[in-house]
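To whoever is on call:

I kicked off a structure prediction for a single chain this morning and the downstream step that reads the tokens threw a length-mismatch warning. I double-checked the sequence; it's 225 residues and nothing unusual in it as far as I can see. Pasting both halves so you can look.
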Amino acid sequence: MGKSEGCVRLLLCSFLWLGKSDDLAMRKSPHPKSVLELLIEVALVGVGVFLGLLANQWHEDRQHRELADATLRYFREEIMVNKRAIERLRPYHTALSNEVAKFLKAEGPRTMQVFQSAAHFRGVEPVEFERTAWDLALATQSFSYLPPKLAYAISRVYTRQQAFQTLQNGLLQAVLAPTTFGTPDVTGLATSINMYLVDVNIKEPQLIALYDQLLPQIEAAIPKS
């Protein structure tokens, strides 16, 4: 039932109750109320019910605004953290891609020791994304209180972020497979890492650009205190 429909029903109930009570009062009282007095009483009851509903609606709207503002602040903080996490690893991923490509082109033994020394390899260093604000927004359903265009922009960024996370997880599962270290030759491993880094060095700048586009939109939607 909608709020306007609820208001109408409350008013009708008030009128019926008031009519019955006034009918009894008129039968018992030697001075029955005039029609004008009855209309005034009905109007006062109706105004009281309307103001009560209005106050309740205002209270709910205020709660929704506060929840939306808090959600946007959480998203702003989390996106800035994720952006810094990517920016911190960008130089290593770029350099590692170049070094792995050189290793694959070079002649000589291709053992893990040689690979680690030649490529300065210290692991693929995946980005660790925060997503607490996203999970909280879903749990509290606060997305419904955000402007639709902004909610869409946030969802789009987190979808791209999740796709990148899936790419990282896929490589880690492949690298940690039992067959990866079954032979001293790491050509296969280096090739997989090289192909992975090609995607990483495309997607990381794209994510940073999306963060840079989204952060001003979130900032503009947060009320200035």
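Update from on-call: the warning came from a stale cache, not from the record. Cleared it. Sanity check on the structure: The longest helix spans residues 35-105.
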